[in-house]
Amino acid sequence: MCEWQTTQPAVERYGTDRTRQPRPGKPAEARRAVERAVTERCRATRTPCDADALSDAVLVASELTTNAILHGGGLTDFRVDVEGPDVRLSVSDRSTELPVVREPVDPQGRRRVGGRGWPIVCRLARDVRVSDLPSGGKRITVVVPLT
């Protein structure tokens, strides 16, 4: 797990102007949702979008949704909110297991496939939170700076 993340019960922190977004079925749909939300905000505020920061946010969304699908029993909710200079991403799944970092090699010294998603999330995001959901499962909420 990220060294600075917290685990706590889930509490909604979304503004009243937030609209319900359809839950993506695949990581590509999550990437498009993030691109759309950020570019719409940039257009509305007439501020340029930082392409590198947007790329980071898209990558984090992709990794979180991929992990939910592969390791979390399936994606149960996805939210993206642009809040000032940041994008807040929340991904929920059916598992209560906390994310873990896997060693890149197994005990026999062979390189493992995968296992790099969570370290990417921890490196690019800040304010990483894992929350237990009342109905079971967990929600991972991260903030990715857009500047």
Automatic annotation (TrEMBL):
InterPro entries: Anti-sigma-factor_SerPK, HATPase_C_sf, HATPase_dom. CDD domains: HATPase_RsbW-like (cd16936). Residues 35-142 form the Histidine kinase/HSP90-like ATPase domain. Residues 1-31 are annotated as: Disordered. GO terms for molecular function: protein serine/threonine kinase activity. Residues 14-31 have a biased composition (Basic and acidic residues). It comes from the Bacteria. The keyword Plastid does not apply. Keywords: Kinase, Serine/threonine-protein kinase, Transferase. It comes from Streptomyces cyaneogriseus subsp. noncyanogenus. It holds the Pfam family HATPase_c_2. The keyword Transferase applies. SUPFAM superfamilies: ATPase domain of HSP90 chaperone/DNA topoisomerase II/histidine kinase. This is ATPase.
